[in-house]
User: Fold Phosphoserine aminotransferase from Lachnoclostridium phytofermentans.
Amino acid sequence: FQMGRVYNFSAGPAVLPEEVLKEAAEEMLDYNGTGMSVMEMSHRTKEYEAIINTAEQDLRDLMNIPDNYKVLFLQGGASSQFAMIPMNLMKNKVADYIITGQWAKKAYQEAKLFGTANAVASSADKTFTYIPDCSDLPISENADYVYICENNTIYGTKFKTLPNTKGKPLVADVSSCFLSEPVDVTKYGLIYGGVQKNIGPAGVVIVIIREDLITEDTLPGTPTMFQYKIHVDNESMYNTPPAYGIYICGKVFKWLKKMGGLEAMKVHNEKKAQILYDFLDQSKMFKGTVVKEDRSLMNVPFVTGSEELDAKFVKEAKAAGFVNLKGHRTVGGMRASIYNAMPIEGVEILVAFMKEFEEKNA
Ligand code: PLP
Assistant:
């Protein structure tokens, strides 16, 4: 990392590749000879069209997105989709939700505004420290979709196998695992995520949606801005898109391609996560909170068992340049978010720091 930068373990907004930030800084006053910043640029120019079209193509290449899926760059963050999904997909007004944490629960509660949302599985009984068995769920006969939050940012769990939806479209919030490993897009009806963890500035939400799910037949009263079809027909330019944010996303896609794509990212992320989990598994002071088989590669929550010691650790870590290690305000303890842009070295020196802290405070 460049001098003055910290190791930022924030769950989001989160660390981005340094070279992307540097490039954006270089282009801030004069993008590509236009004499202006992308922030100042009309989205109806050929320069901007090239930016958004290239971003979409690079994302398609990275995720191997088939032609029968549309890619949308929208605004309103991931949370806007909690409503947009039922408004567009709830034809029978029934959907099944798998509750693996607060984000899934929020989406579930929002869906109840629009129809019948069923919680068909939950890991609330053990404070969301595992992913429930989803091989044979009581999927509703007339469910319009089955909903998951694929990586649970707060609790640090991840679906390693997708649920058996019994033929219903799978809808997944991938906000905190976006582009962290290869995905088979064909297994989903709709994939979406806020970009502020692995991809870019908060506010932008990317939606990848199968064509047959895009219809004019939305729930009565659905605002125009909340209709997928409007955004599909206008190629994400129905209104002014979050133009600068999309430009940064595009740079991160280029960076990912240069790094070797999602296969390489998976190797990189597994390496980092293993360093941290291996340490936690042998430590007498620090303990991971998630069952081994469901551990996230992106968010790693851990505790010492003593609130006092947790607070001391967070404080001393911050002073040493490791910031945002405090666990979510509803959970306590610590959480290290180690997204794509976190270098292996960042995790290695965090573990060295934890070792030292353990020895000193044993
Ligand atoms: N879904 C998940 C998995 C998240 O981690 C977050 C937030 O950080 C959200 C949804 C909400 O995203 P936003 O703040 O962009 O609405």
